Amino acid sequence: MITKCSGMQHILNGFLRYRAKLRGELIEKFKIATVNLNPQAILITCVDSRIVASRITQANPGEILITRNPGSLVPNYNVLPPNTSRPEEAALELACLHDNIDTVAIAGHADCKAMNLVHDNRHQIFKSPTTEKESVLKSWLMANSVPTIHKYFEYEKGDFKKPAKFSITNGRTFEAYIDPENAYPNNDKFSMINTLIQLENLKHYSFLKEPLEKKEIHPYALWLDIYNGDILVFCFKEKRFVKLNDESYQKLVSDLNMD
């Protein structure tokens, strides 16, 4: 009879596998990273257990900072209560001011439970507030997703055939098509839009405003299709998410270098 192990036992089992197979290799990499810590990027992604960020990026210790929250959000704290905790801002400050990274990547994904929740409740923003107490998760997501909801309605009005405009800084905008071929369900379209909205939110952080304007900090959007393992990268030149593969790699690298 096979018994199901507890959550903590599952974690401990993983640690034992790490000790047996990876510890020796990683100790040497930890030593190198400690002496010469030089991360190249910060990745903001979702807490979803299916998103194994360090494995997907194949990052070694010291190469990439990773911060996670439900929905891969970069909150605009200007529209939130003053006493709101600001962990995402703290992580970006650590990365950009202390570790001097120049790349911020926002990574959304298919079937995002956080974005599905917002998508299902998108019409709520037009209703009068109620006294009914909502869950912390829903309240936080809805408070941070109003721009995504409005942009989704803009795309929906054009049947997702027309592009919409996004703003990285006041003088730096781009247009984006979202799945005009209708290959993905609407909740996944919503998740893609949300990923691009987070690029807009970076400019609301005072220490990022000038570096973004001077193009010293480079923001990018990624989207993981968990159904088939594909990584989609937003291509500013093509104004859309492009599947990363051997054929598209050079085109996407060229687009990165245009920034």
Automatic annotation (TrEMBL):
Catalytic activity line of the entry = hydrogencarbonate + H(+) = CO2 + H2O
Q: What class of enzyme is it?
A: lyase
Q: How is the cofactor bound?
A: Binds 1 zinc ion per subunit.
Q: Enumerate the residues binding Zn(2+).
A: 46, 48, 109, 112
- Cofactor(s) demanded: Zn(2+)
Q: Does the keyword Metal-binding apply?
A: yes
Q: Which UniProt keywords apply?
A: Lyase, Metal-binding, Zinc
Family, per entry? Belongs to the beta-class carbonic anhydrase family.
Give the protein's function. Answer: Reversible hydration of carbon dioxide.
GO molecular function terms noted in the UniProt entry: carbonate dehydratase activity; zinc ion binding
The EC code for this enzyme is 4.2.1.1
InterPro entries for the chain: Carbonic_anhydrase (IPR001765), Carbonic_anhydrase_sf (IPR036874)
Q: Which domain of life is it from?
A: Eukaryota
Which protein, by its recorded name, is this?
A: Carbonic anhydrase
